[in-house]
Amino acid sequence: MLSAADNLVRIINAVFLIISIGLISGLIGTQTKHSSRMNFCMFAAVYGLVTDSLYGFLANFWTSLTYPAILLVLDFLNFIFTFVAATALAVGIRCHSCKNKTYLEQNKIIQGSSSRCHQSQAAVAFFYFSCFLFLIKVTVATMGMMQNGGFGSNTGFSRRRARRQMGIPTISQV
Fold first, then answer.
1. Dihedral of CA 119/22/13/40: which sign?
2. Which positions ≥6 away from 25 have C-beta within 8 Å?
3. Which residues, other chains included, contact 148 with Cβ-Cβ below 8 Å and sequence gap of 6+?
4. For 81-101, how does the pLDDT look when each residue is reduced to its tens digit (9 = 90+)?
């Protein structure tokens, strides 16, 4: 079972990703030209929601899914995907004022709409919020791997600590 702090971060991140999905789907639904950036943003948000929230939900019921190595890989991939999606969208919209008419009309993603401008800027913000949470989770998963090993066994640093606590001498002490 995952810790309460991990579950809380997963719930907050799920909210951010659901908001991102709503914003991106609103942008995709009102676009007149195809944008591969929008499609990648939708992929990153859905992938993050499925692998983080669904996997976290299942890991609370089946402890065999709580391996630190698997959590680290999924969190790292989610970090990379959300960072790339946020950065690609930010570069695509160039983040200017939504009151600037020439900016609105010349941008391929915003397509002359002030509401699309606000939606895309909000999507960038929520993707970066989610990216930051995934970075925190990668750090926590890395520390968990260093303490418990990649698959929850007593390998790595924790084996040495356990030997010291049990009074078993190491090679250097013999």
1. negative
2. 42
3. 68, 154, 156, 158
4. 999 999 999 999 998 899 999
